[in-house]
Structure formats: structure tokens, C-alpha cells
Amino acid sequence: MKYNDLLRGSTAINAGFYTRASSEFFREIEWDEKLVNDSYEWGEKLNAFKRDKLFSWNYAFKDALLEAGVLPYNGFSLDHLEGTKISASTIDKDGRTHTAADILQYANPDNIVVLLNATASK
After folding, report:
1. Are 118 and 108 in contact (CB under 8 A)?
2. In this structure, how many other beta carbons lie within 10 angstroms of the beta carbon of residue 41?
């Protein structure tokens, strides 16, 4: 079994929505913020696509959030922001869904540890 057979799961069930985690989160868990941001830029070239045209459900969802008072409206952004925004998609212009497993084709397998049935507490 290959890594990409194992790691499709949750990155493929989010309706194609891509966003970054907050900077505060990485500071809290004491990860190197510059390294994280460099990794984002690299990974986004492979897996985050700005759509020229949104689906009608994208507009409906955005409008519903704004009507419910989830403000401000931030337009397009990959950053973690309070409010409502349009972000990148993990679905490319040809309709192909990209997952975390797609990035693994560029990884060194000797540097990857995959924990199965692991419990996360934080």
C-alpha cells in the first residue's frame, strides 16, 4: 500500500475549499512560522486553485453567511480570517480533486511517518 492510498480521506471531503490555518495556531504549537509559510507556498502551487468562475452554490453559501451576520466580507484570501471569504479550491479547472496525497509524489519517503489509528488530543 502506498502513502497516497492512505492519505486521501479528509482532504477530499471539504467541498474543495482550501484555506490556511491561523498564524496564532502555529505560534501556540511552537512551529516555525516562516517554515510553515514557505510550505504553504510550495503546496499551494500543487493543490490550491483560484477559480475564474464560482459555482452557484458558492455564491449561495457566501450570501447565506453574510445574511446570518458572519462579517466582515473579506473577498478572496487564502489566509485564516474572521468573517466570510472566497478561498481557493482543491478542484482544478478540469474538475479533478487534489488531496494531501498528491503532494507526496514530491516527498522523500524516508522523511515521512504515517501513524494509523492514532488519537489526537490537540
Report:
1. no
2. 10
Within-domain flag for 44: yes
Distance CA 1, CA 44 (A): 26
Cβ proximity of 78 and 20 under 8 Å: yes
3-state secondary structure of 83: coil
Tell me whether the omega of the peptide bond preceding residue 72 falls within 30 degrees of 0, making it cis: yes
**Alpha-carbon gap, residue 60 to 27, rounded angstroms:** 34
Domain that holds residue 55: 3-111
Flag whether pLDDT at 63 surpasses 50: yes
Provide mean pLDDT across the span 2-13. Answer: 55
Does some domain include residue 7? yes
